[in-house]
Amino acid sequence: MSAFSEPAQRHAILPLLAAGFLLVATGAGAQETKSQLKGLQLSNDQPIQIQSDKLEIQQQSNTAQFTGNVKVVQGTTTLQAGNMVVHYSAEGGGSISSGDANIEKIDVSEKVFLQSGTQEATADTGTFNLVDEVFVLKGDKVVLSEGKNVFVGCQLTVLMRTGEAKLDACGGRVMIQLDPKSRKTTN
């Protein structure tokens, strides 16, 4: 079931673009790790497909709730979760059902999984704030990986404007495993 037409698709894909996370680590064993995230090179003209077991649109609260096996796909990017709530502004008369809503925030929960090509992230919950352009994944164990490179913490915060990312350990330690074969070599 596709719930968004092209104008809303542009707003819905921003968090997925920010989630392209080719991480460049800056220090193993630190309490937090800051790095740059490289955005995915996806085209806004690619369709977004959203599937779920149930969709409930609540016009009074300006929300659309997708529940049960939620799967969002655009190009090579896939987001999966048990639950996704889309919060939108009613200013200008837009609505989710007409496809012209201005999406402000997307909340995902229940086993969040994000994949783009060989890059993957897992978390318990996620919030994509499109107004502030901040993306946060949280959980007992937030795992980012590309190939054999793995980053583990409890909260990943991404500033979508700059691509700056921070991985917090929440009282523990950030764990980073880097595969030396993944380093770029210059000849």
UniProtKB/TrEMBL annotation:
Keywords (A to Z) from UniProt: Signal
Signal peptide start and end residues: 1-30
Stretches assigned to the Organic solvent tolerance-like N-terminal domain: 49-163
Single GO cellular component term: cell outer membrane
GO process annotations (BP): lipopolysaccharide transport
Single Gene Ontology MF annotation: glycolipid transfer activity
Domain of life: Bacteria
InterPro entries per UniProt: LPS_export_LptA (IPR052037), OstA-like_N (IPR005653)
Keyword Transmembrane helix: no
Record protein name field: Lipopolysaccharide export system protein LptA
Organism of origin: Rhizobium subbaraonis
Taxonomy of the source species: Bacteria, Pseudomonadati, Pseudomonadota, Alphaproteobacteria, Hyphomicrobiales
